[in-house]
Amino acid sequence: MKHQEPIRIDQNLVNAWGRTLPELLNSTDSVDVKADSLDPHALQIFIRTAGHSEYGLQFKCVYVDDREVKVYFVSAHKGQGCADEESEVVEELADDYIRHIHECAQALQTITHA
Predict the structure, then answer these.
(1) Domain assignment of residue 4, yes or no
(2) pLDDT (tens digit, 9 = 90+) per residue, 74-107?
(3) Distance (Å, rounded) from C-alpha 29 to C-alpha 23?
(4) Which helix (H) or strand (E) holds 7?
(5) DSSP letters along 20-87, please?
(6) 45-64: per-residue pLDDT in tens?
(7) Which CATH number is 41's domain given?
(8) pLDDT tens-digit map of 21-40
């Protein structure tokens, strides 16, 4: 089996994530996707929930190869302050969003595995 090198993130892939990930989330959530300035194989993803909770969760998504990503939960915010990252609500949100991030990576394999 041939070993695949990690994908280097370019603006086309960032744009594809920015178009695709919102389609997998709640319609009222908002998302910002950027290339990680320190890691050429990673994306920084910030998702804001809608409604009264006003949670914001940040993730780092690293391409292991052209088909697989690892997703790291970085931080959580509520309103203008920090949120308890170990609270049940935040853990459930993070788990749900991580699943959606993996779904997005799967959906974009037509780009990354070309």
Answers:
(1) no
(2) 999 988 788 888 889 899 999 999 999 999 999 9
(3) 10
(4) none
(5) HHHHHS-TT-EEEEEE-SS-TTEEEEEEE--SSS-EEEEEEEEESSSS-EEEEEEEEEETTEE--TTS
(6) 999 998 767 899 999 999 99
(7) 3.30.310
(8) 999 999 999 999 999 999 99
